[in-house]
Specification:
Helices cover 84% and strands 0% of the residues. By secondary structure, it is an all-alpha fold. The protein has a domain of 65 residues. Helix 2 packs antiparallel against helix 3. The longest helix has 31 residues. The chain is elongated, with a radius of gyration of 23 Å. The protein starts with a helix and ends with a helix.
Length: 95
Amino acid sequence: MREDRDVMREAVRSKQRRKERARREGRKGLAQGLGTFGLVGWSVAIPTLLGVALGRWLDARGTAGPSWTLTLLLAGVVVGGFIAWYGLQREVHRD
């Protein structure tokens, strides 16, 4: 029983040392990288889909003029790109 606790303590200490070394060296973990990847994806996807939905609604109402779906799709991509850029800038300058 005592040997099991010693093994467990050493495993915890080893993991703690790895985390502290990664922090000192400024390395990011896999979870943080995946989180940043998700931030960029959702930051672009949500405004784009909202633009498409609003554009389809406007086009269905029969308004004359350009296709609102295409116009607001492009606007959603642009807005999403700015949101993603801003989020990445905050992530980079957080440390």
